[in-house]
Each structure stands twice: as C-alpha cells, then as structure tokens.
Sequence to fold (681 residues):
Amino acid sequence: MARPEWMEGAPNPISSVLVANRGEIACRIIRACQEMEIEAIAIRSSSDEGALHTEMADKVISLPGESLADTYLNGDAIIDAAKSSGADAIHPGYGFLSERADFAKSVISSGIIWIGPSPEAIDSMGDKVTARRRMEDASVPVIPGREILAGTNEDSTIDSLVDAATSVGFPLLLKASAGGGGKGMRIVREPKRLQQEYLAAQREAESAFGDGTVYIERLLENSRHIEVQVLSDNFGNTVHLFERECSIQRRHQKVVEEAPSPVLNEETRSAMGKAAVSAAREVSYSGAGTVEFLLSSDGSFYFLEMNTRLQVEHPVTECISGVDLVEQQIRVASGLPLPFSQDDLSIRGHAIEVRIYAEDPSQGFLPATGPLVVFVPPEGPGVRLDTGVRQGDEARIDFDPMLAKLIVYGSNRDQAIRRMERALRSFVILGATTNIDFLIDIMRHQSFISGETTTDFIDNHFSEGWVPKQTTSSQVLLAAGAEQLGLDRNRLSSTSEEIGRTSKNDPFLNLSRVFP
Amino acid sequence: MVNLRDSEGRKWNVQIGGNPLSPISIELEGEKIESANITIFSDTHPNRIIIKKDNLEKIAFCAKVGDKWWIHLDGNVSIIEVIEPGISDSGTNESAFTAPMPGKVLEVLIPEGAKVSEGQPLMVLEAMKMEHRILANKQGVVTAIHYSQGDQVDAGSVLLDLESN
Fold:
C-alpha cells in the first residue's frame, strides 16, 4: 500500500495502530486512523464481543478472558497482539494502561512505537508527590500540601497524619498519590473524621491503584478546575491549546466541560498557558498532555497534576482550536514536527461537552444498568457525539458508567448552551437510567448560564439531591396507550423485553424508595 | 382499565379506549383528574407513539422493559410500571434494605440486634472501586444481617432488616 502523503519524511512511519482500549475512546482513535489512511486494530475481551469499537476496526484481536486484568489491563497480551497483528504502534487511549510507565517501557523495548510521552515523563507526573516536587523546581505554583509518611506501625502513621493535617489546616483533601478519577479522594472538614476518612482513602487507593500512599492538600473551596492542553513534538517545540473549564463535577468526576473558560481574562490565560508549557518542558514531554490547575477565587492558580495522555474532554479543545489532537499524537509519534507554532493558534467560538452516564442522579448518582432499547442521538449543526455504544447494547456494571460524550460547538457561549439543551432534549435513551434530564437542568441553571461554575456547583445547587420532574398525566396516558396498543409486542420492543427479563442487572430491582 | 405506578410511587388508574385512543377516565391516587381533548395514535416507526393534546401533536418514544414503560416526551424520561391485576400493591418490604447496585460488602458496621439512629452508617459497599455507605433511613433495631464482609451482592439483594422500635 502506498504511504499516505502526511507520512512523507516521517522518521518512524506508522501504517497500523493497535488501539489498546474500548468504548468511545477506542472508536475515536479508530476514526482518526481511518482518516489518516492507516490500519486500525482493536482488541476485545470476551464480554465485548460485537462491541462498537470492534465493529469499526479493520482487524480485531480477541484477548482470552473477561476480567480487566486478563484483557485491557494485560500489557503482555496486548504487546503480543500488536506483534502478531503486525501493528507498528500502540495507542493507549485514556484510563487502563495509558499512564503506566512500565507498559510504555515494554512497548518501546518490543520495538513498537508508543503513541504517548516517554516512560520517564509518565513516571514523574504519575506519582503526585514527585510531580509536586518537579513543578516546584520548574517554578510552577503548587497547592500548599504535605505528604503522609507511612510509619512502621499504624500508630506512627496516624501521628504523621495528624501532624500533616495540622500544618495544612482544615478543611483538607486526602488524595491518593497514584490516583485519578476521584478514587481514593476524601474531603475532611473536621479533625474527628480525619482518621476514618484516611483509612477509607487508603483502602480505595490500595484496591484501585495497588498503592495506598495518600497525601494531604489544603481544600480550596469555590475554586475552579481549569486545565490546559499542551502538545509537544520531539524537536523541543511545545505549544498550549488554551484551557478547558471542568469545574462541574460530582464525586470528583467531571460532568460538564467547556472551552474556553467563561472567566479567564487574557492575562491569566496567557500566564496559565506559559506555566503549562513550562510543566511539559520540565519533563521533556512528547505528544498530547494536560496540565490541570485550580484557580482560586482570588485569581491565583495552582498546579494540580499533569495527565500524560489524551483526556476524555479533548473534543472541546479540538472544536475551538481546529486541531485534531489524535492526528497530532500519531504524527508526533511518527517523528514529525508540529505543523504550527503558538502564534498560529487562536480560540474560535465556544464548545461544551457533557458526559452521558448510565447513572441515577436522583439516587446519589449511583451507576445504573439496563438494555439500551432505544438510543437515538441528537443531530444538527455544531453537534458531535463520541459514543461507544449504540441501540441494542447494554449498560453494564463492569466498566465505567460513561456511555457517550455529547459535544456542541457554537459561535459563543450562549449559543453553545442553547444548542446543548436542544441536543440533550432530543437525545432519547430508554431502558437504562441516564443523567440526561439532570444535564438539561444544569444547562438551564442561572448560575451555569452566568458562568459561575465552581467545583462545588452540584453540591451547592443540588444540596438536597436532584429531583426529576414529576410524571405528568400525558406521560401516564402514553404508557397506558402503549400498553393498550400492544406496542411492546412489536419487533423491537419484544426483543428488548427479553433482554430486560433475562438481565441479572435489571436496574429496577433497586428503584425501591427505601434506600437513601 | 390499566393500573400504573409512576416512579414517585403514585398510583394511576386509567381507562382508555376508542379509535383513535382517548382517555375515558383517569384517577391519580383515587382522585379523578381532567384530561380533555387528548388522543393517542400509534406511529409507523417502532418505539414511537403520538399524543395529540388540544390539536397539538407530539411524538413520544416508548419502550417496555419488564413491567415498566419508559416514556420520552418533551425532553424528559419517565418510567411507569404496569401493575398486573391480582398482584399485591405492597411491592416493597418497608423494613428491608436492598443493595442499590451489584458490588462487594467491604464492612458491616453494626452487629445484629443493634439499635441504630437515623442516618447512622450500617454497611459499606464497594462498586466500581468506589465506596458507598448504607445509612439507616430511620431509628430502629437491626433484626437481621444477610451478608458479611467480603460477600458479593447483586442489585436488589436484601442486605439487612431494620425494624422501627
């Protein structure tokens, strides 16, 4: 096969990529490969038979087993799959093995191109304590915090914990050193809960990351979570692609993301961009990465962490910058220089992303399961859907509850908000409870519209929990009418009914109002 | 007559008939409510149904999973259960605590026979690597604990019984 034009002169040409992931991000990467005229190879566990990403790929390698450890987290099996399928490169996506330096190292030593930063960069940013030290060296501001030194016994560890907590002050945040995604993270407001929360955080960190190291940071309330996208090549060029505002979170997981931030002025934007570029340079970064900052209410900002991979919310940056980040990742990995410099980049318009989760916002955002009997996504100008599922699939408990990402792009923030509300209202998912109705309420919320998006937005504005709209007589009549017309006996519904009845994870088994 | 229960637990009795379908009577918790000028049509597309109210037609999506109708109308989803005649209405056992999702019991925080106050943590479940605390919804006595530390539970499993005292 003739090489595509973009690969001319690339020192490490790539003609096939193994995508070591699943769900929407695997689909996203496969699409980029197809557009770049390179072969995309998918992997799957036995429970992902027929999954969307396997259908889209040019080739599929089945990894024996159902558990994550046997499949998507099995570095050796993935490298074997890449070798046997003749893949030139591995793209890890996000999550799974994307930030595992040892995996990156094994990929490189097997002679396969790693689409990501060097193992050394992953290592120094992956351990939050090391990252803090490196950032201090690079004069990037960090949040006041302390490490908890694990003692020889529980008593001395608790002494170290109390000592660190006293010096940082309450309220404080316990964070897993190896952490991410809100796991192993705990807010402590009063000293009497410190020990209990510490043990819970340590346990969560131990089971999620195999490393129970926890450190303490001052909790900056009413702060904003703002992150800067960076892109580096292997010739010393690093640019930033502006910021994303990811303040709206529940349980420390992002729900709504937008770019640009509604509050950043040009001065702060440029200072933050420069700090992000310094952070990337400090670890000789290569490829796409994200530097997260907390912006406190007084306008000062602090380094939180650097994610050494593609982010879930990367599409909003793509919308406003016009840069395809996955394409750039692949180009950089093939040894090509960035085709633009900082001066070529500017912000155009406004983009918002919401994460569609299979979860019940009226039950404390507990994950929900069920068959996706109807899955009709919205369409129209400025609407992008990055989904890993389609109608007929099932929302399952074994992976992340995120089903899809809905992204809208508009000429300004107001238009983007209206567009998102319109898109969400026409997004129909039946069979599994989702957060769509909750997201509509966020889009309509006066504080969101006026750009008052802080990390405690959901806690503040939905402190009593979220209550869905009361069922109307029209909806009840439709149910009665559908029952009377026997609409459940037509082709599509009867299949779904079978799925529903045989499903062990019927979401309605738990709709009992008894549970808090 | 179709007997239904909405997700807030309210009971509806609906009599509907004719061609096109129109409501003959609607009762919410035994109280009659007005529903003038409504007709309901089937649609050529599967999983769709049309409601016409005061001469305004709207397309709704519908799907039945188990005994429940999922209805999407005006950008909102509602889940409405069909109550089969002859089945007792008291579907939920007031004293039973059920697991909200499949997971693992990390910790049981109280012994059987414990007197607990409202809001007191009773158990810790782990699912998707997150911990969830099961809190007492009322003051009472824990009369039975059905799982112990390390057990896997399915969604809907009765974890423990809590009787008011």
About this structure: Chain B has two domains: 2-82, 96-163. Chain B touches chain A through 72 residues (CB under 8 Å).
